[in-house]
Amino acid sequence: MKVQFRPRAIADLHAIIRWYNDIAPESTHRIVADIERSIERLKHFPHSGPATGHRDLRRIVTLRYHFKIAYRIETGRIVVIGIFRHQDRMA
């Protein structure tokens, strides 16, 4: 299944990278890899994230660093709506 990122999700990912590059640059690549693994898993198991009951959104939490990935399943694709820490924003 194809994955498409909304502009907000891209901005979220860039903000995560900037933040960790500033405070712990040695961790940035592991954090990004954790997010990428979770998104790759969604390609194969799009219904694995529970529905949030909000605008047909679903979400998963990355295994290692506990980022939330909010997404919507559309015909033939997964649309990533946002990527954020649990305490930063709810979706």
Description:
This protein has helices spanning 7-23, 25-44, and strands at 2-5, 58-61, 67-74, 77-85. It is an alpha+beta fold and 91 residues long. It has a single domain, classed as YaeB-like fold, CATH 3.30.2310. The protein has a four-stranded mixed sheet. Helix 1 (7-23) packs antiparallel against helix 2.
Task: Tell how many strands the DSSP assignment holds.
Answer: 4
Our Rg estimate from Cα atoms comes to 13 Å
> Which strand order spans the largest sheet, edge to edge or round the barrel?
1-4-3-2
Largest sheet: 4 strands, mixed
The proportion of residues forming helix, as a percent range, comes to 40-55%
Give the termini separation: 22 Å
CATH superfamily: RelE-like
User: Per DSSP, what share of the residues sits in E-state strands of 2 or more residues?
Assistant: 25-35%
Q: Provide the CATH top-level class.
A: Alpha Beta
- CATH architectural grouping: 2-Layer Sandwich
Here the CATH topology equals YaeB-like fold
The structure class reads alpha+beta
